[in-house]
Amino acid sequence: MRARPIGLALIGVALVWAWLALSVPLAAGVADTSGGAAGEFLFSLFVFGPMLAVAIGLAWLMRTLEGWSVRSFGQGAMLGLAALALAVSYCAVAGTLSIGGIAVTSAWPLGLLSIGVQVMAEEAMFRGYVQPLLVRGTAAATGVMATAGAFALLHAVLGATDGVELTNMLLGGLLFGLLALRGGVGAAAGAHLAWNAVEQLGLGLDPNPGTGAFGALVDLDLVGAARWGGSDTGLNASWAMTFALTATLGFVLPRSVQQKPSFSAAPRAAHR
């Protein structure tokens, strides 16, 4: 066990939590003042823009931000879409999936940019900086699990309190961590962005019910049993998401064991 990379990783996590505690209330005020799609975009830009810049800077200094390629991003995106489709299918079988109102897509490009900033900030920090350092300081399995735990706690800081929701965030963190470990940060970012963007802008499942300020291509709602998505938190606090992520992890894990990590578990000479 190496103390230095572990300490540097913990500093990164602490910076994120401190920044969120400071910035979210301020950004919420800005968003309320602006309103609509512009307010939502400004919120994401204000909160996650600096986080993305800091994450890239830290990862560049420690040379941990590796594995960005169109191929890995595309493979991750396909896996994220498959996992989301499985979760929605579970909801359909459970009888909670329904057609909502008329979808509006006028602010779709702005929404994609907003979601992209948040996803890239989270992945650059957690899978691009924190996880590689924890893997260097401990071991691959420990690094992935610890980073997933920090990722789940990030969502607790952002307001998630439901036990199933936090469990799903943990499972999502494990999935993204395994993808980053073997396919690079691009694979994790692709899966994360594909799920979030299609859930919100494609299917209109977040927020639930209705659609957000950016609109959606179609408006699907989850109505009925809360544990099958029929609550204000939708898929995030549903067993459908739990089962879908577990199944996807079952698909990814054996392949992760068979492949070599996308980044070196040892620090570069210039940064020892």
Description:
The protein is an all-alpha fold. It has one domain (3-263). It is 70% helix and 2% strand. It contains eight helices and two strands, in the order H-H-H-E-H-H-H-H-E-H. The protein has helices at 3-34, 36-62, 70-94, 108-137, 140-157, 163-183, 185-202, 239-258; strands at residues 97-99, 220-222. The protein has a two-stranded antiparallel sheet. The longest helix is centred in the first third of the chain and has 32 residues, at 3-34.
Terminus-to-terminus distance: 14 Å
The biggest beta sheet reads: 2 strands, antiparallel
With helices defined by DSSP (H or I, 4 residues minimum), what is the helix count?
Answer: 8
Gyration radius, in Å = 18 Å
> What global shape is seen?
globular
Mean pLDDT across every amino acid position: 90
Question: Helices and strands, in N-to-C order?
Answer: HHHEHHHHEH
Strand content: under 5%
Counting structural domains, the number is: 1
Q: Enumerate the spans where pLDDT stays under 50 for 5 or more consecutive residues.
A: 265-272
* Broad structural category: mainly alpha
Widest sheet, order of strands = 1-2
Quantity of strands, as a count: 2
Helix content: over 70%
Protein name: CAAX amino terminal protease self-immunity
GO molecular function: endopeptidase activity
GO biological process, one term: CAAX-box protein maturation
Keywords: Hydrolase, Membrane, Protease, Transmembrane, Transmembrane helix
